[in-house]
Amino acid sequence: MAELKFFDKVAARAGVPDDTARSLTEATLRTLAERISGGQAAELADHVAHELRPLLARADVEEPDVFAYDEFVRRVAERAGVGPSLAERGAGAVLQTLHRVVGHREFEQAMAQLPTEIQALAQPVPQNP
């Protein structure tokens, strides 16, 4: 049930249908798990719905796969089957939702392992009045 709420929140934040939100969530969490340490991925997995945990699993790999922002977005786009701009928007929606689910401390520890450009995806875009 918590999994469905996660997808609903991603769909609302990214302005996409539920099935696209699911694809973007799966792609973003898998890519994030590759980019952060295995221990940090496991910490995040402890705070998400049971159904989402395998997406953050890293088969006993402790060292992160180091890649930059462009590669992060490319991997999300490829896995989700969407274009780069939607992958970027969707990854931001997933990270913002993840932040609220896992809590500030755990989220910030994970974000500290990422380049500034990827961290910026997690920042909400101010809405124009």
From TrEMBL:
InterPro entries of this UniProt entry?
A: DUF2267, DUF2267_sf
Which Pfam family, any one of them, does this sequence belong to? DUF2267
This chain belongs to the protein called: Uncharacterized conserved protein, DUF2267 family
